[in-house]
Design a protein that fits this description.
- The chain folds into two domains: about 150 residues, Alpha-Beta Complex (Quinone Oxidoreductase, Chain A, domain 1), CATH 3.90.180; about 150 residues, Rossmann fold (3-Layer(aba) Sandwich).
- Helix content is about 25%, strand content about 25%.
- The mean pLDDT is about 95.
- Helix 2 packs across helix 3.
- It is globular, with a radius of gyration of 21 Å.
- The strands form three sheets. Strands 3, 5, 6, 7, 14 and 15 form a six-stranded mixed beta sheet that branches. It has a six-stranded parallel beta sheet with strand order 10-9-8-11-12-13, with helices on both faces. The chain has a three-stranded antiparallel beta sheet with strand order 2-1-4, with no helix packed on it.
- The protein has about 325 residues and is an alpha/beta fold.
- It is an enzyme of class 1 (oxidoreductase).
- Belongs to the NADP-dependent oxidoreductase L4BD family.
- Keywords: Oxidoreductase.
- Pfam families: ADH_N_2 (PF16884), ADH_zinc_N (PF00107).
- GO terms for molecular function: 15-oxoprostaglandin 13-reductase [NAD(P)+] activity.
Length: about 325
């Protein structure tokens, strides 16, 4: 039996290219050793963080990431045939494990789709939940949110609305605008390609905003910090997708004086810091889903061979909500 894997053969320089990622076959043994299980991918995740994190190890290496997998052969009593697990096994169609790296779903899904465990009820959803929590949102606050139609941003905006926050959202297409405005109910939604985002924020909130959730970085971060937060304003820094493909470091206007003078609180989030609290957050958010308070959208790519295309799509704004590959 053979499996497939996507291998990073050389580091990305600028935009990811076909020659950087190659699909390769590998042999799987006919028999398992005691304690081992053979798993087959069901759903796989592609996420923007994979782009900068790929620099931390030397190629060639199997591209890393999370998947939902099913046990199709077992010699481990803890994982019977058909068991479904979450695992950071990377971009592999099949793999063998001794069980230490396999995580059963830690909360009651009810009738929620299994794939949500890679999105709203997985790492991106936890990032939204705890990243918004760092802002300590209060009713009547104004939140500036970029990447608002993405896997993280769409959940941040909806959770903020549940807290009574006024959401000023920016997206990259008119389809995304319509979804965020008409289905998710964000207060102000703009296609950033059609407006000057800084001037737009100034018109809506001339006296500034209390909160900023940044998924984009670059010009967004520096403009909002320098121009659009009130005294004691708070910002959560989640991502910097505007800069992930930069070949050289860009220089921006200094922000230190503005942070100091307005006594701003700016904090990055690495979501694994909160991992012990994930089950509680997922239980709460799943109840919101069941109650219709939290809406979820996925962009599903069909077939393991389309992993690379799904990954590319993240950097051109192809996905609405969470990008998922159905193996």
């Amino acid at each position: 039996m053979k499996g497939k894997q996507w291998v990073l053969v050389k580091h990305f320089e600028g935009e990811p290219k076909d020659e950087d990622l190659q699909l390769q076959e590998f042999d799987l043994p006919d028999e398992l050793n005691d304690g081992e299980v053979l798993l087959e991918a069901v759903y796989l995740s592609v996420d923007p963080y994979m782009r900068p994190y790929s620099k931390t190890k030397n190629p060639p290496l199997t591209m890393f990431g999370e998947q939902i997998a099913k046990v199709i052969k077992t010699k481990n009593g803890e994982f019977p045939l058909g068991t479904v697990v979450l695992t950071m096994s990377g971009w592999r169609s099949h793999f063998i494990s001794k069980g230490q790296d396999l995580r059963p779903v830690s909360f009651d899904l009810g009738n929620t789709p299994l794939s949500y465990c890679l999105g709203t009820l997985g790492m991106p959803g936890a990032t939204a939940y705890f990243g918004l929590g760092l802002l300590q949102p209060k009713k009547g606050d104004k939140l500036i949110l970029n990447g608002a139609a993405g896997a993280v941003g769409s959940i941040v905006g909806q959770l903020a609305k549940i807290h009574g926050v006024e959401v000023i959202a920016f997206v990259g297409s008119d389809d995304k605008l319509n979804w965020c405005k008409n289905e998710l109910g964000f207060d102000h939604v703009f296609n950033y390609k059609n407006v000057n985002f800084s001037e737009t924020i100034k018109k809506i909130a001339p006296d500034g905003c209390e909160l900023f959730f940044d998924n984009v970085g670059g010009d967004w971060y520096h403009s909002v910090i320098n121009k659009h937060l009130k005294r004691y304003g708070k910002a959560t820094i989640c991502g910097s997708i505007e800069n992930y493909n930069d070949k050289t470091e860009k220089l921006y206007p200094a922000t230190n004086y503005k942070i100091l003078s307005l006594e701003l609180k700016i904090q990055g989030i690495i979501v694994n810091t909160f991992i012990k609290e994930w089950p509680k957050a997922f239980t709460e958010m799943n109840q919101y889903i069941q109650d219709g308070k939290l809406k979820v959208k996925e962009t599903v790519y069909d077939g393991f061979d389309n992993m690379r295309s799904a990954f590319y799509g993240l950097f051109i704004g192809e996905n609405i909500g969470k990008a998922i590959v159905k193996a």
